[in-house]
Amino acid sequence: MTLVSLSGIGKTFPNGVAALEDFSLDLHAGEIVSLVGPSGCGKSTALRIIAGLTAPDRGTIVWDGAPPQIGFVFQDATLLPWANVFDNVRLPLRLAGAPRRASWDAVAEALVTVGLAAFGNATPRELSGGMKMRVSIARALVQRPKLLLMDEPFAALDEIVRFQLNDDLLRIAAETGASVVF
Ligand code: ADP
User: From the CB of 43, is ligand 1 less than 6 Å away?
Assistant: First the structure.
């Protein structure tokens, strides 16, 4: 089943930079797709267009039904430094208006998925870079997205942590059934 189909996508920024020309992608449910290419070739722009954060100039995007819940993980963990891990992961639910009590199970489940069940009360400064990234992934998972968009989320981490998180990502995708564009 095709989750989303992009066809002939083009994007030229107001400064004249053509970030994408004729970009097409069929993403199927449960599939993991990596976009590979040199810096500046348009990977982030493609992710932002899929997420609806940037409007394309040309081309079509067709979803299978309504656009699904999407989780977006950025290169930096971008955690709230004054909030503990639990409240950082809860943020999307809070922004959506869910009461704290009703968020408990979803936050706990997301923390288990990324292996941080014991760290709900920790603050970001107590965590390693890899753990912060896991919190960021848990925050993206907390609304149980059908589609996870990841923009070089492990680029700033050392190689051992990166390999571990890549393995985790495959497991998380399998467990949650989410499609991933990486
Ligand atoms: P990648 O993720 O593959 O490194 P990007 O999608 O970030 O590539 O960028 C593609 C090209 O578009 C680059 O040349 C970049 O400088 C340019 N670009 C990205 N965002 C903007 C923007 N908001 N305004 C102008 N140029 C941009």
Answer: yes
Distance CA 49, CA 30 (A): 20
Cα 68 to Cα 57: distance, rounded to the nearest angstrom: 22
HSE-up (13 A, CA, CB side) for residue 176: 30
Global pTM value:
0.91
> Quick check: CB of 13 below 6 Å from ligand 1?
yes
User: For residue range 44-86, what is the model confidence (pLDDT) as tens digits?
Assistant: 999 999 999 999 999 999 999 998 999 999 989 999 999 999 9
- Ligand 1 contacts CB of residue 182 (under 6 A): no
DSSP string, 21-52: EEEEEEEETT-EE-----TTSSHHHHHHHHHT
Q: For residue 147, what is the enclosing H or E element?
A: strand 147-150
Contact 144, 173 (CB under 8 A): no
From 139, 137, 129, select the one nearest 160 (Cα to Cα). 129
Is any ligand 1 atom within 6 A of the Cβ of residue 136? no
- How many whole angstroms from 105 Cα to the centroid of ligand 1? 38
